[in-house]
Amino acid sequence: MLSAPGIPAWKRRLRLILNNRALYLMIFLGFAFMIVFRYLPMGGLIIAFKKYSFRKGIFGSDWVGLKQFEFIFTQNPDFYNVVRNTLVINLLKLLFYFPAPIILALMINELRSVRLKRVIQTSVYLPHFVSWVVFGTIVIQFLSPTSGVVNQIIKAFGGEPIFFMQDSKYFWGIVVVSEIWKSAGWGTIMYLSALTSIDQEQYQAAKIDGANGLQMTLHISIPGISDTIVVLLLLQIGQLMDVGFEQIYVLARPIVYDVGDVLSTYIYRVGVGQAQFSMTAAIGLFQSFVGLTLVVLANAACKKLFDKNLW
Amino acid sequence: MQARSSRKLSLSYAIIVAILVAFAIVCIMPFWYVMVSSFSDPQLIKEGLFKLLPTGWSLEAYRVVFRDVRFFNGLRITVLRTVIGTALALSVQTMMAYALSKKIPGRRIFMKLVVVTILFNGGIIPTYLVVQSLYLVDTFFALILPMVFNPWNVVLLVSFFAAQPQSVSESAKLDGAGEFTIFLKLSVPLAVPAIATILLFIAVRHWNELMDGVIYINSSNLKPMQVYLIELVMRSTTNTMIEPTEQSLTAISIQTAVIFASCLPILAVYPFLQRFFVKGIMVGAVKG
């Protein structure tokens, strides 16, 4: 049927498409939603080069060239501050948060009791399943100067209560620690699945040769998950311009905006809140562009290191 | 010598267990704290360290919360968006992924289009303007429709469907079964672990989503529970900043009561689903 002679290729292709029309129908709905809510906004980025007016709409608004970019780069001091905060928070997360799931996974992998393993996993995954509103509120309550646990301990040792949420110097630390607390457990799942696919015979052989646990971790487990580590690291680097909106929105009080305001919260507050659509769309385009550049660079690095694409 | 090295090993093992147990307790603690605080006497919370058991059993906080119309409104919107949104998103994503796992003309282009949306997006403002131009701002659909398509889920499901043996569906096709019948009767039942995992992801996302409620919704009767909760918190923290009065301490009780009530559905189903989704994502991760 496939190689019936005498029928031109395009006719065979057309028949193949017609025969599979049910499958195309099944793609259609998802495709339509993808075009409307993912691709139309990409097209909507042209308002970064326009002066958006609600009356004229995205396509009818007047072109202003690079004026918006000129403004954000030369006359908007907030912009540099927000970019700095975004980068610093992400770099701190890369430095302190990123290794946490790896270390946790390696430790969980050492557990010999299946039951203990399951209890630990069930517990550490749990914070991932509540919202940042819930988790952030709990963090704020723990750090409260009057009734919070942390300050109760400080007071018990004779210290003065600290206003954690109102003091800029604590904010970055709070963001990184709360991220580890909420997400490091769930982050182990990729590494644990990579660890299970390591050939168990390697461990047996190493044990016979007299290797101890640390040596096996260093020479078998870590090399076994190094691909996963690098891929996730590169993906993380691609996200360097993106700080999740919800964590910051919940944790940052206006009093710590000098260190807490990031691109997403700023774009929301000024863009949606003050209807400065074109200016914030220009910032968003800059953000997406840098993000895309980083992803492409990360992919090139991945290709060079492992001879395969990230995706 | 032998005995010594095994003792040393068991010491390092004990340290690992101790660290993991400590971290597990730290992860459970917030939930225990919320439960205990919400059932404690609001006046007693300020005294001493956080207690392991409720101090002065009280349902006062729940009484206040359950009298609040906005709480029930938020709960209603959140339940509705989770049920309707998850059903819609899951069926659309599953169908799309199934079809994309078949070797049909154009499959590679479709997959490329899906992956591009992972790498690049229009961002907050253009998406807002699209939602606005569709007259969806301040409607229930703004909480549902933008979340129907999700590239990560589609990619995960495609890799799962692609790993299914083709022989069964081939023979069913020869017997005259249509694609849709094969999908519903053969492929979906075989893919239950993966589909259940994606279902859980979508449902949790809907239940917890804050940003779309903040950005798209203005009417108070359409605000989901997460928005209700953050507004409650922001009101009371501005109070604490001014003066840490009795009233703001009661606010802690009310907040924890709302948090506990809003987490209860997740906490209730979580232990049962846990093993399921771990299996689902592991298989997906190994394949992808």
Describe the structure.
- The complex is a heterodimer of chains A (311) and B (288).
- Chain A contains 16 helices and 2 strands.
- Chain A is an all-alpha fold and 311 residues long.
- Chain A folds into 2 domains: 48 residues, no CATH class; 241 residues, Orthogonal Bundle (MetI-like fold).
- Chain A has a two-stranded antiparallel sheet with strand order 1-2.
- Chain A is flat and about 70 Å long.
- Chain A starts with 8 loop residues before the first helix and ends in a 5-residue tail after the last helix.
- In chain A, 37% of the residues are buried.
- With 288 residues, chain B is an all-alpha fold.
- Chain B has one domain: MetI-like (MetI-like fold), CATH 1.10.3720.10.
- In chain B, helix 2 crosses helix 12, helix 3 packs across helix 6 and helix 6 packs parallel to helix 12.
- Chain B is globular and about 70 Å long.
- The N terminus and C terminus of chain B are likely disordered.
- The chains are: A mainly alpha (311), B mainly alpha (288).
- Chains A and B meet through helix 1, helix 2, helix 6, helix 7 and helix 8 of A and helix 1, helix 3, helix 4, helix 5 and helix 8 of B.
